[in-house]
Amino acid sequence: MEDTRVSDLSFLKQFSSGNNEMMKKLITVFLQTAKDAIVKIEGFIEEKNWERAGSIAHQLKPQCSYMGIKTAEPFIIKIEDAKNSDASTIPELFISLKLIIEKAILELNDEVNKLG
Amino acid sequence: MANALKKIFLVDDDHNNNEMLKMYLSSKFKLEILSFSTGEDCIRNIELNPKYIILDYNLNSLKTEAANGIDILKKIKELKPEIFVMFLSGQDKIEVAVDTIKYGAYDYVVKNQSSFLRIENCLVNIHKNIRLQYLAKAYRFATFFLAGILIAIIIMSIVFRILGISTLNPGWF
Predict the structure, then answer these.
(1) Residue ranges of the domains in chain B?
(2) Hey, what CATH class is A19-115 in?
(3) Between A15, A22, A58, which is nearest B90 by CB?
(4) Of B19, B23, B61, which has the smallest distance from its Cβ to A59's Cβ?
């Protein structure tokens, strides 16, 4: 079974100039932010508060870019756009986004462990 | 208070982004960096006279009633029009970017992997522009000064001619 990575830390390595402590700190903050964001979006979707769900997803976009989670971006953009047009698609879009983020969280947890 | 560091305000409700930008800027420039999570906090501290402000557009993820970046930009320009305001936002809608420039933002940068470098370039360009403006002012002053001397010489030579004094041999010797 082919297991493709969803995250790519090339940018972060360049950004932190090989400073492992800085990388670890940035990844750890992302992990917390991403977990919180997923819980919040789920809550807002349950409440059908599409505006807030979109707003939290929007905040994840640059963080995903820094962690090289490129596949998440199209879903975030669709969620942002759907809040003003077809909000009924948001729960389905969120499921796909959540799968990507959860996979990225596993990968990045491994990276944090490797960094010591 | 000689050599006081220039201040830069980072205004973003995304703490992680503020931290990354702070790390990046402090590795490139000597600046006093202050971070705020809402535009209202930034306005409350505007009397600290920052030279630059980097502002996000969506600022309401922590406080739903928080004003957006354009409203904060308008307020900054009303209070301190000399501050250079740059936008750093995840919002990639062209209308938003155009509006920020219309209301006086220096530049609009979309958050992605190249945004830190683009902000660095903005700050370098602002510094270059300020230097060029200063040089242009000095050049204008020098031109006026030299023109003044030239006019004075012409007037004096006319006066001397009227008085019958030769400027080549004034006959004073």
Answers:
(1) 6-132
(2) mainly alpha
(3) A58
(4) B61
Cross-chain residue pair A29–B16, CB shorter than 8 Å: yes
Spatial strand order of the sheet with B84-89 comes to B31-36, B6-11, B52-55, B84-89, B107-110
The pLDDT profile of chain B, 173 residues, written as one tens digit per residue, is 445 789 999 999 988 899 899 999 999 999 999 999 999 999 999 999 999 999 999 888 777 788 999 999 999 999 999 999 999 998 888 999 999 999 999 999 999 999 999 999 999 999 999 999 999 999 999 999 999 999 999 999 899 888 877 655 655 55
Rg (CA), chain A: 15
Q: Does B12 touch chain A (CB under 8 A)?
A: no
CATH topology classification for B6-132 = Rossmann fold (3.40.50)
What Rg, from alpha-carbon coordinates, does chain B have?
A: 25
ipTM for the predicted complex comes to 0.81
Domain ranges of chain A: 19-115
Q: Which residue has 């250079």 as its token pair? A: B84
A57 contact B CB<8A: no
pTM for this prediction: 0.81
Between CA A106 and CA B144 the distance in angstroms is: 69
